[in-house]
Amino acid sequence: MTANRAAGQGRRRAGSSIADGGTTGDSDGSGGSTALGGRAAARRGRKKSGGSKHKGLKIAGAIVLSLAVIGAAGTYYVVHSLDGNITSSDLCSGATCSSKEKVDAFGRSPINILLIGSDERDSQADCNLGGDCGSPGARADVEMVLHVSADRSNATVMSVPRDLEATIPQCDSVKGSPSQPAHTDMINAALNWGPGCSVAAVQQLTGIHIDHFMKVDFGGVVAMSDAVGGVNVCVDKNVYDPYSHLKLAAGPHTLKGVSALEFVRTRHGFGDGGDLGRTFAQHLFISDMVKKMKSAGTLTDIPAMYSLAQAATKALTVDTGLSSVFKLAGLGQELSGISMDNITFLTMQTLPDPANSARLVVGPGARSLFDSIANDQSLSEIKSKSKGGASPSATASPVNKADVAVKVENGTGISGRAGAISQKLIGDGFSQNTVALSGPSTSTTTLTYPAGKSAEAQAVAKDLGLKSSAVKQSSVSSSIVLLIGSDWSSGSAFPGGSAAPAPANTKAALTDAHAQTANQNSCAQVSTFDTVSLPGYGGMTPTRAYALSPKVPNSAP
Predict the structure, then answer these.
(1) Residue 507 has pLDDT above 70, yes or no
(2) What's the number of CA atoms in the CB half-sphere (13 Å) around residue 499?
(3) Are 35 and 264 in contact (CB under 8 A)?
(4) Which domains does the chain have, with CATH numbers?
(5) Which DSSP letter does residue 470 get?
(6) pLDDT at 299
(7) What is the pTM of this model?
(8) Phi first, then psi: what are they for 33, rounded to 5°?
């Protein structure tokens, strides 16, 4: 706690410090980068070269959900006009970005989307909202990795604090920013070379393959919050941040327009005045935004959905793989069935940089968190699935391997193969009733399962590294049967496949990550530190600033 407080105070002192190579200060006017002016604002990026998917500020199911509805009900004119709003650019820049998603036993792939909130101000409207329009370059003051599981049963949204020091890879030149060798800087500085460079930097940091990106700006946050009729938030104390201009009395509020932007941008109002408190508050904001977008009333109001789709597409910069309404709608349809209970928000673990209290470094547990996401291992307890969510073959709850018995048949002609594989399965926790048998000679290994046992078969296939083409439903057998062919003559993992990764160390992955599900109702924690100041006064808490500013109007009733 002491270290975190010191780090926050250090960031407040050096808040406006620019990443190596020059950058803008906090667009909230206080020094430090833009809050959701980073996060939210971040979502927009340049319309000339950007691309976006998760409307920076909304977790994919949100804006994309609206596009899915419009795409299904819209006319050619509607679709064409929305397509004309979208700007896009390449997914990855300069650095090697050739990694691929890992598929499960049924050939399904997870989806990872980098949500970017940019502090760029490429219009007078954005300048009016964010200020500090004379600063060159761009910074991704909000970065979140949205991970959607291969079976579409759950999602994880991981924030990467903009104060984090990381290696910025060598990326391609963009207008006004010539290419530079790899160097250490705040991770938000990568956006200076375009969203593709942010993708490369986050992928390099985490080891998580990024499939798409979505970037949003200040105006996008304002428009989106208006389009859904306001976002419901709560603060646990009176708060006034004169830098972002957020002023709210303790309790619940519905935020629209500029007041929504003030909430997601405020850096000094929450936590210790650093970037971490801001990320937690933004998770609350996004959770309610998604709830609004998934609500029956919103989804059946076609004019409102069209307004939402217009706001979303105008605000977005996306990669070329998401550069049309139908591409976004297709993605939205895949994501829309995930239950709010199964969406986990968290922030990667960090520590204060011993050499610079205004910066953060990767903390204990972060590698476990990165690996869990990269290996598609859920950090949520899958309690429920929404209708139309995961595919019929996906499991809504973890398989108890101890209840899964497998008949392992040797069709290789090589003595001992069935015994070796059956013992491997038992050793990995599958049922003691797993047996080794002789089987018909075959050149191709297959895993067959009866109706209703697809999840169990998937667990077996993942454990052995079997390819999806080897897994088939059987209409004649009442058991899960593994027939080993001559294409698997040795070893306990199928050749060319990959055995399942070790189970996620959930405790380590979630420790100090401030995890919460999208359905949890809680209030943003107003800072109890002296994070703000007023003319004629010294440093004070945001609650004290509220008491001293009775003539300043509240951001919302």
Answers:
(1) yes
(2) 12
(3) yes
(4) 2-19+29-377+506-510+520-547 (3.40.630.190), 401-484 (3.30.70.2390)
(5) G
(6) 54
(7) 0.70
(8) -80, 180
β-strand pairing of 212-216 with 111-118: parallel
Q: Distance (Å, rounded) from C-alpha 282 to C-alpha 267?
A: 11
CA 428 to chain centre: 31
Q: What stretches of 155-240 show up as alpha helix (H) in DSSP?
A: 195-206, 218-227
Helices (H), 447-532: 454-464, 506-510
- Residues 442 and 438: their CA atoms lie apart, in Å, by 12
pLDDT for 341: 87
Residue 326 makes CB contacts below 8 A (sequence gap 6+) with: 71, 79
- Integer-rounded Cα Rg, in Å, for the chain is 25
CB atoms within 10 A of CB 392: 5
Tell me the pLDDT tens digit for each residue of 215-267.
Answer: 887 677 777 788 788 999 999 999 999 998 999 999 999 999 889 888 988 88
With a CB cutoff of 8 Å and minimum separation 6, the contacts of 134 are none
Short-list 251, 511, 283, CA closest to 379: 511
| Amino acid identity at 438 | S
The owner of tokens 């595919």 is 391
Alpha-carbon distances of 307 from 57, 261, 321, rounded to whole Å:
17, 19, 24
Separation of alpha carbons 374 and 380, rounded Å: 15
Residues 6+ apart with CB under 8 A from 173: 179, 193
